[in-house]
Amino acid sequence: MRKRFKLGTKIFSGFLGVLALMVVSGLISVVSVYSVGRALHTIAAEETPVVVASGEMALNLMHVRDILAEYRAATSTVELTNPEEVPKLLATYEGLIKDFDAYVDGITKGGSLKDGTRVLKTANTELAGAVEQADHVHNDEVQPAAHRLIDAGKAMLASAGDANEAMDGMEGIYDKVVDATVNLQQAVYTDLAKARKANAGGATLQNLALIAGGVGELHAALAESRIALEEVVQMNTLKGVEELEGHFKAKTERFDSLILPLYKGGSIDGHAIDISKLDHIRKVASALDEQHDAFQTAAKAIITTRRKAIQDIMTAQDAQVAVSTAVTKAQGLLNHVQELSRLDMSNAKDAGDSTRQWSQILMVGML
Questions:
Q1: Would you call 64 helix, strand, or coil by DSSP?
Q2: pLDDT in tens, 287-313
Q3: Helix 143-197 with 279-366: angle, nearest 10 deg
Q4: Residue 112, strand partner residues
Q5: Which is nearest to 154 in space by CA: 334, 308, 270?
C-alpha cells in the first residue's frame, strides 16, 4: 500500500508539473502573441496612416505653393495676364486647403483620408502637438499670405483694365494734340508767308520767325512727353516711374513755356513776341493748350495706374515669399511628425521582437 501510494503520488505530482508547464507555456504564448499583435497594430493601424497623412500634408503644401505661383504668373503684368485660368487656380487652391484640414482632423481626431485610408486618433501627445503646430502655421501664416497674394492678383487684373483704358484714352487725345499742333504750325507759316509777300518790315518777320521756332519746339516737347509715357508703361520699379514722371513734367513745363506766350503774350526763351494783331494764331494756340491739358490728365491716369500695378506686383512678390517661408516652416513640423511616427513604429517593433525572444528563452528554459 505504501509503495503504491508513493507511486501514485509521484504520478500525480508529475501530472501537476506537466499541467503547470502547459499553463505557463500558454501564458507565455498569450503574452507573446498579444505583444506581437500590439506591435503590428501600432505599425499598421496607428503609425503607418499617420506617416501617409503627414506625407500627403507636405505634398499638399507644395501644391499650394505651386498653385499660387501659377496664379501670380497669370495675373502678374498687363502683357502676360491670363484671367481665364484664375477661377480654376483659385478652385484648386480652395480644394487643397480643405484637404489639408481633413488630414489634420484625421490625425488629431481620427477619421478617413480622401483615398479611404482609415486613420486612428494618435495617442502620442508630442506628435499631435507637432501636427497642431503645422496646422497653426497653415492657418495663421500660409493662408493669410496666400490671401494677400490673391487680392494683389485681383487688383492687378483690375489695374490691367484701367491701364488699357488709360492708354487708349491718352492715344486718342495725343492724336488730337498733334493735329492741333499742326494747325498752329500751318497758321504761323500762313501768316509768315503773307508777311513776306507783303514785304513786311524786319520786325514783323523776326516776330513771326520767333513764333515759328517756338511752334517747332512744341512738336519736339510733345513727342518726348509721349516717349516718356511709353517708357512708364514698360517700367517695373516705382523709382523708375518717378524718374520718368519727372522727365514728363519737364517736357510738359517746356511745352507750357512755349504755348502760353502764343495766346497770352510774353517771351519765348527770353525773346519778346508780339501777338496783339495775330488773332488767328492766338485762337489756334489757345485751342491747342486746351487739348494739351487733356493730354496731361490722360498721362496722369497712365502714371497712376502703372504705379498702382507695380505696388500690387510688389505686394504679390512679398506675399509669395511669405507663402514659401511658411510652407517650409510647416513642412519642417510635418517632417518631425513623420520622425515621431517612425520612432513609434521602431519602438513597437523592438518591443514585439523583445517579447518574442524572451518567450523563446523561457520556453527553452522550461524544457
A1: helix
A2: 999 999 999 999 999 999 999 988 988
A3: 160
A4: 118
A5: 308
